[in-house]
Design brief:
By secondary structure, the chain is mainly beta. It folds into four domains: 82 residues; 106 residues, no CATH class; 43 residues, no CATH class; 93 residues, Thrombin, subunit H (Beta Barrel), CATH 2.40.10. It is built from no helices and 30 strands.
Length: 342
Amino acid sequence: MPTFSPLPVSAEFYDLKAAPGGSAWVFLRTTGGEGLVYGTSDGGVSWRPIPIPTESSRDKYGIQLIDESHGFVQHGRGLLATADGGRTWRPVPLPPGHTFGLGARFLTATRGWYQDIRAYPDQAAQPSSMWWTSNAGESWSLLWKVSADQPAAGAIPLDGSKYVLGFDGSLGWLRLGAGSSQRLLRTQDGGLTWWESALPGGEPVLLGSLVSLPGDYAILLARTGAGWWAIRSRDGGRTWTDRVSIPITDLPGASDNPAFIDKDHWMVAGGNVIHATSDGGRTWHDLRPKLPAGIFALHDLWLFPGGQGWASGSDAERGGSLHVLVTRDGGATWSLSPVPHL
């Protein structure tokens, strides 16, 4: 058995967002609760602090990275945008009456959507709305709304949780929650009308993330009582044809999100191994990557065509602190990236 010597840290890893070309941001919280963002544009060789002009660094946070220059910081009282890698920021107007920045999601520096994601515990009714902007928030168009005064928007009901999984301004997907089972709605007309999408399998399912891939392919990550599945679409998510199992291992405190590199090549971490497929999940094989000293388990993976990629890795088999790792050979070899505090 290996001897576990946790690596020294003074902050907790919360999130990483990466873009092609070696750019990435990480969001950390110090042991005192302070929120910190660091950025790299050289594949994790060096990192620089990204100052965030907010009233309270202990606010709720989210980060979005579009490219090396453009990104967003979401917080509980607004949304900030940068066009110079985080050196300067400007406030982004949100839809009328809304201030919760974590409801915003941008595809480019100017095009994105906003969803009212407030939760209302202990009641079936869950009011929500969705808006679209194509000018960086200067104006917003209401796509749908459900409330006590408007208890349905076509197929979207007032009762149950609602979450937009993806939207490109025309085609989009909405997850509807009802107890231990969820449904998928889709739109093909810019969010004005929604229809339920049939999913293979038939049993109750919990829906995770949705990934659009080159060549008009899409993958919907889902969970049933039997495990995790990749539900596949060959027409960009308009219809869902079949599903294949994914070997995700649930560990306490770990979230092992797969990396879908293209329609055929997927990877998912499983402790000190990586489960990989090169035929769209029909067959899987195990890779035993070379990990840096002190790292015993991989978790979330972010991989790009060409071999560049990122991972979160822990300094214990179960639990431990998370660190940022980088690979340049498609996951065969990993090194610690020198993020301050980690």
